[in-house]
């Protein structure tokens, strides 16, 4: 074993000893990590991604009323996740909101705004829907 490896191991052991003295739950975290159970964090992240609902196909197929029904069935965290994933609030102020109705209103307003962009040209007859 090289001298730099020995120094690195000794510094890690000192760090572990300090953490054990200062943090009461460090031992359980260390055991959890060493046993290979640290994969739970990855599964939790996957579940968060699976909770994400894509609003655009719902809006296209069921309209605003269908979207409203789906949004009402979700909780605040899922609504905030939809806002984050679709970048519906660039100021990120809505990420702190706890009012479900206010979040739904924001999602519906921004979704309608984004789907209606370009309709001004269709109204003038410059373009048709088939172009």
Please write out the topology.
Layout lengths: L2 H20 L3 H9 L5 H12 L3 H18 L3 H10 L14 H17 L2 H5 L8
Give the structure's gist in a few sentences:
By secondary structure, the protein is an all-alpha fold. It contains 7 helices and no strands. The chain is elongated, with a radius of gyration of 25 Å.
Structural class: mainly alpha
* Distance separating the two termini: 70 Å
Instruction: Note the beta-strand portion.
Output: under 5%
Rg result: 25 Å
Kindly report the average pLDDT value.
Answer: 78
Poorly predicted regions are: 40-49
Number of domains: 2
Number of helices: 7
Q: Which quaternary structure do these chains form?
A: single chain
- Main beta sheet, described? none
Fraction in helix: 55-70%
Give me the strand/helix succession.
HHHHHHH
Would you report the number of β strands? 0
Which outline best applies? elongated
């Amino acid at each position: 074993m090289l001298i730099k490896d020995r120094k690195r191991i000794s510094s890690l052991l000192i760090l572990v000893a300090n953490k054990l003295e200062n943090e009461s739950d460090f031992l359980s975290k260390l055991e959890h990590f060493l046993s290979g159970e640290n994969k739970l964090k990855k599964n939790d992240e996957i579940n968060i991604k699976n909770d994400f609902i894509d609003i655009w196909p719902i809006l296209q197929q069921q309209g605003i009323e269908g979207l409203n029904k789906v949004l009402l069935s979700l909780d605040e965290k899922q609504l905030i996740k939809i806002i984050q994933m679709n970048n519906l609030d660039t100021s990120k102020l809505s990420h702190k909101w706890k009012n479900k109705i206010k979040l739904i209103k924001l999602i519906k307003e921004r979704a309608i705004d984004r789907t209606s962009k370009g309709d001004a040209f269709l109204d003038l007859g410059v373009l048709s829907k088939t172009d």
